């Protein structure tokens, strides 16, 4: 077994063959878990950003209403 032909699964650190269809993960399960982890992290960031942005349209709508009332 040459070290060139194997890598370690980023998820469970098990040796993975380079010809594995789920490379660089040892299995589809590990790949899905890792993708899910990324998805959760992205979702969390997106949610925080959305909460932060949600404050703006409200303020914008308010200022727009004030402006139309002034015209
Ligand atoms: Zn794995």
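Q: What amino acid sequence fits the structure above?
A:
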């Amino acid at each position: 077994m040459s070290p060139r032909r194997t890598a370690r699964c980023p998820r469970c650190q098990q040796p993975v063959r380079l010809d594995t269809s789920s490379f660089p993960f040892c299995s589809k399960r590990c790949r899905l878990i890792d993708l899910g982890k990324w998805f959760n992290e992205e979702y969390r960031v997106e949610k925080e950003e959305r909460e932060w942005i949600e404050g703006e349209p409200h303020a914008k709508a308010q200022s727009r209403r004030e402006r139309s009332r002034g015209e």
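Q: And what stands out in the fold?
A: The longest strand covers residues 6-8.
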